[in-house]
Amino acid sequence: MNTTDRILRVDSLTKTYGKGGNKTEALRGITFDVREGEFLGIMGASGSGKTTLLNCIATMIRPTSGKVILRGQDISEFRGSRLADYRGRIIGYLFQEFELLDNLTARENITLPLALHGKTAREAEGKMRKLASMLDIAGVLDQFPSQLSGGQKQRVAAARAFIANPDLVLADEPTGALDSKNSKILMDQLASVNRELGKTIMMVTHDANAASYCSRILFIQDGRVFHELRRHTEKESTAAFYERIVTVTAQLGGGGANVL
Predict the structure, then answer these.
(1) Of the ranges 38-52, 82-96, 143-157, 242-256, which one carries the lowest mean pLDDT score?
(2) 257, pLDDT greater than 50
C-alpha cells in the first residue's frame, strides 16, 4: 500500500447556504489532502460541516467556491458520462442506513454497480466472492435485505461500495445504525480491506471507537480543520489512539456525546 502519493486535494472549499441574515457558512475555506491507501476519519460537532464536505466530494452538492481535485482533475468540470462514471465507478459510497434495494438479493445488491456499467455476471462474480469472504457475508448472498441483520446489511453495502474497485470510498457514519458488536465487526473488516487491498477510505463518524481504526483523523470545527491526529501505525495500539481521540473530542466542546 502506497501512503505517500496524494489521491485527493480539497482546496479552499467553501459552502454557503441562504443569503443575507439567513446565510450559513457550512464550509469556510477547508483545505487538506488524502493519500493513496489512507484510512482517513472526519470528526466534529453537529453542524461543523463534515457531512457537507463529504457530499461536496461525492458531487451530491456543489460547493460555493474552492476545488476538489481527484488525481489531478477538478471534479467540478465533470459532465454527462464522465460525471456518471465518477459517481458510479471512481468513488464508492457507504451510507449509514445501508440503502439496499429490498427486491434484490445480497449478491445482486453487491454486483449492481458493475451491471450498471456493462460488466458481465462472470466478471462480477469473482470480485464479489473475494469481498464477500473478506466481509464475512459469503453465507447470506442469496438472501434478501429483509432476511439480514443490521450488521450483515452494512457489510453487504460495504461490498457494494468496493465492488467497482473505486479510487476512493466515502463512508458516512457507517456504524451509526449498528450496535457495538456489529460496529466492531464492520470496522475490523473495513480496516482489513484498507490494509490488504490498499483501498482508500474517507469516513465521517461520531464514534471514537470507529475512528480509532483510522490512520489519520481530521477534526472539523465551524467549517475549518481544527486539529489533526495521526496514528503511529507501527507502535500505537487502537486503544491508545482511541484515548487521544477522546481527548481531542472533549476539547471540541461537550465531550464525546456531542461529537457527530
Answers:
(1) 242-256
(2) no
Closest residue by Cα to residue 26 from 7, 47, 43, 40: 47
Q: What are the residue ranges of helices labelled H in 44-203? A: 50-57, 80-85, 106-116, 121-134, 150-162, 180-197
3-state SS, residue 256? helix
Res. 256: pLDDT tops 60 = no
Please give the DSSP secondary-structure letter assigned to residue 211: H
CA distances from 142 to 46, 94, 105, 242 (A): 38, 21, 5, 37
Q: Which of 83, 192, 184 is nearest to 133 (CA)?
A: 192
In total, the chain counts a number of residues equal to 260
CA–CA gap between residue 179 and residue 190 (Å, rounded) = 16
* Closest-CA residue to 7 (of 169, 159, 152, 158): 169
pLDDT at 53 over 70: yes
Cβ atoms of 186 and 154 closer than 8 Å:
yes
109 by Cβ neighbours in 10 Å (0-12 / 13-18 / 19+) ranks as: buried
Domain spanning 3-258 has what CATH number?
3.40.50.300
What is the spatial order of strands in the sheet that 65-70 belongs to?
24-35, 6-17, 65-70, 73-74
Burial class (CB in 10 A: 0-12, 13-18, 19+), 51: buried
Looking up cell 472539523, which residue turns up? 220
